[in-house]
Design brief:
CATH class of the largest domain: Mainly Alpha
Number of helices: 22
Helix content: over 70%
Shape: globular
Distance between the termini: 28 Å
CATH architecture of the largest domain: Up-down Bundle
Largest sheet: none
Number of strands: 0
CATH superfamily of the largest domain: MFS general substrate transporter like domains
Order of helices and strands: HHHHHHHHHHHHHHHHHHHHHH
Radius of gyration: 22 Å
Strand content: under 5%
Structural class: mainly alpha
Length: about 500
């Protein structure tokens, strides 16, 4: 069966499929914020360096970013439900291994196992959702619910992570993933019918390798540059590898009939804008999360549960704003949530540029709430802009590209924030920690301004016209591929 909607007609069944897919989103998203809260405890227990802490986050997000697109094509070829279930099983296994890690290196390695499973979840789940909800308005509502679950996941992570870290230990933050993963596996077996693309895309191993080289060398260079020296031969070679890989990737993908990344997508201004907004917004928020957990616990002396509770304004804002953003997007108002998101991100950054160890709690809580507004408003328009106007056969790839952009942003955000503030966070409880974060929050304000500009540019009449021009080209390409497959003569036996 090629189309989920052929087998799913009852609205109740469709929303059970949506609920099962949202469990995977809860699993993956909550894990990120939980780990950030536990960073000081991991640092004490395993003796982790600043780079070790960065890699404990980026080891996950980098691998997810590298393999999201490949996972999407694998699901189209071998079955979306099968790939989804394999991802859940691998993520749960990796979580269990993380809870047993004896060293920082082992933790990073087991986070990579988690990430290989995580790469199979969100883009495949979004492909299932897009092919289940075929009515545009119903699909928009489903994406709005997806965005709301994302907000809840980001919100509850610090609170649950803080409580578990303080009262049970940091290893327990990984245990919580196992029962959720098992529940999602059972739900997918019960409610989600198997589906595949009408014609599966061929594996693009060269493109995949170039993506890995690009992201790994770029992130490694940013994380290790301060420690080894920006003029170190290794760092220069790393950045050179990243630049070369990018050039080769663009040149190769342009010539390939079935590319890993279809560069024609970027001729659509809404899609290109959504991709850039995803990178910028998640760079901002992941850098903030990385520094915030260390600041609250090591500069202000809060215990993990108090640090988690301190971020409740983020949770409240996310829970409130995510469904509002989803409804606005569902009603055709994509520009407003993007402008609000960018403005809120910039305002939060400006509130924190003068951060001190004794910054008034009210100022911190206000900044956190505004930060939550920014992230709560941005996610739904990113997803909607990425998939709207695309042929259904291309929606999964488009969604996977947007998800990859989020993970790229998250990786770079942690790498950049940790590198800019490294002088103040190298030693636990450093007296210069707060001051060291100031450049990061000035950068955050610039991130917010960029989101506003991109929101305005990517939602106007010119942007809509570009999307209208690109969609038929993509549809034609799919139709031509399917026709060629039907007309191609069968290979003789043994040929």
């Amino acid at each position: 069966m090629n189309n989920i909607s052929d087998a799913v007609t009852a609205p109740g069944r469709r929303y059970l499929i949506l609920a099962t897919c949202c469990l995977s989103l809860l699993l993956v998203t909550m894990d990120v914020t939980i780990v950030n809260v536990a960073l000081p405890a991991i640092r004490r227990d395993l003796g982790a360096s600043v780079a070790g802490l960065q890699w404990s986050i980026d080891g996950y997000t980098l691998v997810v970013a590298c393999f999201l697109l490949y996972a999407g094509s694998t699901a189209d070829r071998h079955g979306r439900r099968r790939t989804f279930q394999a991802g859940l099983a691998l993520f749960s296994t990796g979580s269990l291994l993380c809870s047993l890690a004896p060293s920082t290196g082992a933790l990073v390695a087991f986070r990579v196992v988690q990430a290989l499973g995580g790469a199979m979840l969100n883009p495949v789940a979004m492909s299932i959702i897009v092919n289940t909800f075929t009515d545009p308005r119903e699909r928009a509502r489903a994406i709005g619910i997806w965005g709301a679950v994302f907000g809840v996941s980001m919100a509850v992570g610090p609170v649950i992570g803080g409580l578990l870290t303080e009262h049970v230990g940091w290893r327990s933050i990984f245990w919580i993933n196992v029962p959720i993963g098992l529940l999602a596996i059972a739900g997918s077996a019960r409610f989600i019918p198997e589906s595949r693309a009408p014609r599966a895309r061929r594996p693009d191993l060269v493109g995949q390798l170039l993506v890995i080289l690009l992201l790994a060398s770029l992130t490694s260079g940013v994380i290790e540059g301060r420690r080894l020296g920006w003029d170190s031969p290794l760092i220069v070679a790393g950045f050179g590898t990243a630049l070369t890989s990018l050039g080769l990737l663009v040149a190769y993908e342009r010539r390939r009939a079935e590319p890993l990344i279809d560069l024609r997508f970027f001729q659509s201004l809404p899609f290109a804008g959504a991709t850039l907004v995803a990178v910028i917004s998640f760079a901002s928020f992941s850098g903030f999360l990385f520094l915030n957990s260390l600041y609250l616990q090591e500069a202000r002396g809060l215990d993990p549960s108090a640090a988690g509770l301190f971020t409740l304004p983020i949770a409240v804002a996310l829970v409130v704003c995510s469904p509002i953003s989803g409804r606005l997007v569902g009603g055709g108002h994509v520009r407003l949530p993007l402008v609000v998101a960018g403005s809120a991100t910039a305002a939060a950054g400006l509130l924190l540029v003068g951060l001190r160890d004794d910054t008034p709690a009210g100022q911190l809580l206000a900044a956190y709430a505004i930060f939550g507004v920014g992230l709560g408003m941005v996610n739904a328009p990113i997803t909607f802009s990425a998939v709207s106007g695309m042929p259904r056969a291309q929606a999964g790839v488009a969604a996977a590209t947007a998800s990859t952009s989020r993970q790229v942003g998250a990786s770079l955000g942690v790498a950049i924030a940790g590198t800019l503030a490294a002088s103040g966070i190298r030693v636990a409880h450093s007296a210069t920690f707060a001051a060291a974060t100031h450049p990061v929050f000035w950068l955050t304000a610039l991130y917010g301004a960029a989101i506003v500009v991109l929101g305005l540019v990517s939602t106007g009449a010119r942007a809509r016209a570009s999307a209208a021009r690109v969609a038929p080209l993509l549809a034609e390409g799919v139709a031509e591929e399917e026709m060629a497959a039907r007309l191609a003569p069968a290979s003789p036996a043994g040929g």
